[in-house]
Specification:
The protein is α/β, with parallel strands linked by helices and about 450 residues long. The chain has 15 helices and 15 strands. The longest helix is centred in the last third of the chain and has 20 residues. The chain starts with 10 loop residues before the first helix and ends with a helix.
Length: about 450
């Protein structure tokens, strides 16, 4: 999804130049395109990939708007959508959809596997469309930098589908921390049962691609592969639900859930890029499939008067040990977050901060009992990640998880996946934005897309 090898810059040169461009975009005003609608007007929506998470995203955004085009390379996913949105035009290929529909589309949603996120979003943004992209935003560091820069240039309203970022719980956690309820934080523990037993994974660790099978009737497997330049045949291991553990298509358990669980401390603590990422694997390094039991440690530098922070990520079956003072039961595989403070901490169960609480229990009980001493709600509230995006488009505002925020968050997650994929520490130079010590990881900063799927083909 890059320029051809003959004219694209070196990885080092690209990362340096994109870092400078992105730094400049932080201070540029948000320029909204002429297609912004009024608050009471309906948007014309198109969606690419609506078989899994995309179906929920589509329906959440469709309320009060027009769904004019839908795209999925597997027509077996079409029947319920045709019943729900009978006036929409249906496509196998998003490129044909965006070309034919043109100005009839205001905004595009992306609910495909990770490896196709960039191509769809890039082509849509390049045409001035607002975009919603499921997490993780993209599949490589190069894609994150490129998409973020393009979105800033085009002035479109963007959103990543990390639903917890729009939640009440995320705001409470940030407000509690900012109010000093738990003091300084030097350690964060986050964990998930995936890839060991979670949704989208089957607990197996594969060392070879499965044998090809016949695709479902009418499915265009070539379109599903998208930019992947490998002769991988269709298999039920990949479609429709278990593509996440395969590095060519997904980003493992960290890519699946990290954009939810790590998002909250990343935002609350005002973290930036990690200086290094360490990894401990229970199994062997695997070039094609995520292992089980990875432990990833993100090392973040001090921020002003705030101390350095270690964010430790555990994937099933690995789980963290309970820190001192934590008395809410042993961490277990389902998932959760513990922010360890000087004066107690903050905990939530599950992948998202739906019901956060303080610990130890006595601290939480005291906070609930003293209503007059509760922390004021100072952060803007939303109506959810989907409505926040729709409202931002209609009102000419910035969404809560737009690419200026969610692309850097995704970069953090992707640095962790590079540590897992190589089994080695990734030292990240934040000044020059380059990987210093891990040649295998450097090769994965960008991955050559096959013809038809590079930026020049999608412009």
């Amino acid at each position: 999804m890059q320029p051809s090898k003959s004219n694209r810059p070196s990885r080092r040169a690209f990362i340096k130049s994109s870092a400078a461009a992105i730094g400049a975009s932080f201070v540029a005003p948000l320029m909204l395109p002429r297609s912004v609608k009024g608050a009471n007007e309906k948007l014309n929506l198109a969606w690419v990939g609506f078989g899994g998470m995309g179906w929920g995203d589509l329906n959440a955004c469709a309320d009060g708007n027009n769904v004019v085009a839908l795209c999925d390379c597997d027509p077996n996913m079409w029947p319920r959508a045709k019943n729900q949105f009978p006036d929409a035009k249906f496509y196998l290929d998003f490129r044909q959809m965006l070309t034919e529909m043109g100005d009839k589309i205001d905004a595009v949603g992306v609910g495909t596997p990770d490896h196709n996120h960039f191509a769809i979003a890039y082509m849509a943004i390049n045409r001035g469309k607002h975009v919603f992209v499921e997490k993780p935003l993209v599949h490589t560091l190069w894609q994150a930098r490129t998409l973020r820069q393009l979105a800033a240039q085009k002035g479109v309203v963007t959103q990543m589908g990390n639903q917890g970022h729009a939640s009440e719980g995320a705001r409470l956690i940030k407000e509690w921390y900012q109010a000093g309820l738990i003091g300084n934080v030097r350690e964060v523990l986050a964990w998930t049962d995936r890839p060991n037993t979670g949704v989208g994974f089957n607990g197996k660790v594969e060392t070879a691609f499965p044998p090809p099978q016949t695709p479902p009737p009418g499915m265009d497997w070539n379109l599903w592969l998208g930019p992947v330049d490998k002769p991988v045949g269709y298999n039920r291991e990949f479609h429709p639900t278990t593509w996440r553990p395969w590095w060519d298509f997904g980003s493992g358990g960290l890519g699946d859930i990290g954009c939810h669980t790590i998002d909250t401390p990343y935002w609350a603590l005002d973290l930036n890029a990690p200086t290094s990422v360490d990894v401990a694997l229970k199994g062997a390094v695997n070039p094609i499939h995520t292992p089980n039991g990875s432990i990833v440690t993100f090392n973040f530098a001090a921020r002003g008067d705030k101390p350095p922070v270690q964010v430790k990520w555990y994937e099933g079956p690995s789980v963290p040990e309970a820190p001192a003072g934590y008395d809410l039961g042993a961490p277990h595989g389902e998932g959760g977050l513990i922010m360890v403070g000087e004066h107690g901490g903050i905990y939530h169960a599950g992948m998202r901060p739906d019901s956060p609480q303080l610990y130890p229990q006595a601290k939480w009980q005291e906070y609930r009992d003293n209503v007059d001493k509760r922390v004021p709600k100072t952060l803007p509230r939303t109506k959810g990640i989907h409505r926040d995006w729709i409202d931002a488009i209609k009102n000419g505002k910035k969404s809560c998880s737009d690419f200026s925020y969610s692309a850097p968050l995704t970069e953090v997650i992707l640095l962790g996946t590079l540590a897992i994929r190589t089994g080695k520490t990734v030292q990240w130079n934040t000044e020059n934005s380059e990987i210093l010590n891990n040649p295998e990881a450097v090769k994965l900063i960008d991955i050559e897309a096959r013809p038809g799927w590079r930026t020049k083909d999608l412009a």
